[in-house]
């Protein structure tokens, strides 16, 4: 990783403040303060789009924490993201009240349509924002802790860990597609009205959600950097490179990986919670295995084991996706596949690793010419 993004250095802190400061100020200014007829005005849909990218960046960062540092590739991280999103979606559904299609204050519209007689017990408490936020943290965190404890205690590593995480994800997708689960079936949860009393369709609310996404991503980055630069972070890197040796030295490999996996799941859940009010829907498609594989692509393209690279990869891939799905939707998937293959073969350390290598090469002194080498040897012999 380049020295620029070592947050402990003065240059690293300066880069952190500048990048997140610009993101925090520029977008709200261009959207709220610049007149709509100005060419510099940022449309409302772009604010929501950038907010969605920020949530994706936090999801990628969470995966990088467990894959880039602990070496455990989770292909089921979309489950934690979706569960956090469903917790927020349940709260938003309870805030609709009598403004729904059926005007029933006790039941969400989809339950009325399916002839549910009463609210399921696991929906109780989601009327309150504080309870919903606790669940956003608790549900992904507890799931990751229990799942990780069994997996890491059994010493499941490598491709086998990736397979069982994806199997977990697929099981959630099948379960949430069922109407009997009480989460809206294949339609999911949608038609949200407001959050904390603020209209979700209002311009200022969208900007507020964007600002919250920037702040949360900054906090997630700082948490990740704190962990990676600590003694635990060095142990995680050692586990990634030589797990058996670390175990032989007496370190608890299970506890270290379990901690990283749980914190990673919590960050993914928070990303999903902020994602839902900005896109206006959460449905079982978020549990799709393809989505979690795509997150791994973001991290690989940006540069795993760097945190900032994961953020960069999420923005780069999703920005390209937004462009190509409009300009050439037929070739988008081929482009994504070619990009992943190209990065794997030509840039194994991702964009940030390539930039770091080029910077190191530019700083390297130029090689001596044959004439200079001859003169140097002659000088040594004369001495």
List keywords for this structure.
383 residues; mainly alpha; two-stranded antiparallel ribbon; two-stranded antiparallel sheet; 14 helices; 4 strands; 69% helix; globular; disordered N terminus
Fold and architecture overview:
With 383 residues, the chain is an all-alpha fold. It has one domain (52-204, 213-363). It has helices at 10-33, 44-69, 77-94, 109-113, 129-153, 158-176, 203-229, 231-248, 253-279, 289-302, 308-327, 332-346, 350-363, 370-382; strands at 189-190, 194-195, 198-199, 281-282. The chain has a two-stranded antiparallel ribbon with strand order 1-4. The two termini are 43 Å apart. The model is unreliable at 1-5 (pLDDT under 50).
Topology summary:
Elements: H1 10-33, H2 44-69, H3 77-94, H4 109-113, H5 129-153, H6 158-176, E1 189-190, E2 194-195, E3 198-199, H7 203-229, H8 231-248, H9 253-279, E4 281-282, H10 289-302, H11 308-327, H12 332-346, H13 350-363, H14 370-382
Antiparallel strand pairs: 1-4, 2-3
Q: Any low-confidence stretches, pLDDT <50, length ≥5?
A: 1-5
**SS field, number of helical segments:** 14
Structural class: mainly alpha
Mean pLDDT: 87
Quickly describe the structure.
Helices cover 69% and strands 2% of the residues. The chain has helices spanning 10-33, 44-69, 77-94, 109-113, 129-153, 158-176, 203-229, 231-248, 253-279, 289-302, 308-327, 332-346, 350-363, 370-382, and strands at 189-190, 194-195, 198-199, 281-282. Mean pLDDT is 87; it is low at 1-5.
């Amino acid at each position: 990783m380049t020295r620029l993004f070592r947050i402990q250095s003065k240059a690293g802190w300066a880069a952190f403040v500048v990048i997140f400061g610009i993101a925090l100020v520029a977008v709200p200014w261009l959207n709220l303060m610049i007149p709509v007829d100005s060419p510099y005005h940022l449309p409302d849909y772009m604010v929501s789009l950038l907010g969605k990218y920020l949530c994706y960046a936090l999801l990628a960062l969470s995966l990088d924490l467990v894959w880039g540092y602990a070496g455990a590739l989770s292909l089921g991280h979309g489950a934690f993201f979706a569960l956090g999103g469903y917790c927020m979606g349940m709260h938003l559904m309870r805030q609709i009240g009598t403004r729904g299609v059926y005007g029933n204050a006790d039941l969400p519209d989809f339950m009325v349509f399916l002839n549910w007689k009463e609210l399921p017990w696991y929906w109780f408490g989601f009327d309150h924002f504080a309870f919903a936020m606790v669940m956003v943290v608790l549900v992904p965190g507890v799931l990751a802790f229990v799942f990780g404890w069994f997996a890491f205690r059994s010493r499941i590593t490598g491709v086998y860990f990736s397979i069982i995480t994806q199997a977990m994800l697929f099981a959630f997708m099948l379960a949430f597609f069922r109407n009997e689960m009480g989460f809206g079936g294949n339609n999911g949860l949608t038609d949200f009205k407001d959050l904390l009393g603020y209209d979700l369709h209002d311009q200022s609310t969208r900007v507020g959600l964007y600002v919250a996404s920037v702040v949360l991503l900054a906090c997630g980055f700082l948490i990740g950097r704190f962990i990676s630069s600590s003694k635990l972070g060095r142990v995680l890197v050692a586990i990634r490179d030589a797990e058996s040796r670390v175990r032989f030295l007496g370190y608890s490999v299970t506890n270290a990986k379990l901690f990283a996996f749980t914190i990673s799941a919590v960050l993914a859940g928070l990303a999903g919670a902020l994602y839902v009010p900005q896109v206006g829907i959460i449905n079982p498609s978020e549990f799709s295995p393809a989505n979690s594989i795509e997150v791994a692509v973001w991290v690989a393209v940006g540069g795993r084991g760097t945190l900032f690279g994961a953020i960069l990869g999420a923005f780069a891939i999703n920005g390209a996706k937004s462009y190509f799905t409009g300009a050439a939707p037929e070739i988008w998937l081929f482009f994504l596949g070619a990009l992943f293959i190209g990065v794997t073969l030509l840039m194994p350390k991702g964009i940030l690793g390539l930039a770091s290598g080029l910077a190191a090469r530019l700083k390297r002194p130029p090689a001596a010419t044959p004439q200079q080498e001859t003169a140097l040897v002659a000088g040594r012999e004369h001495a």
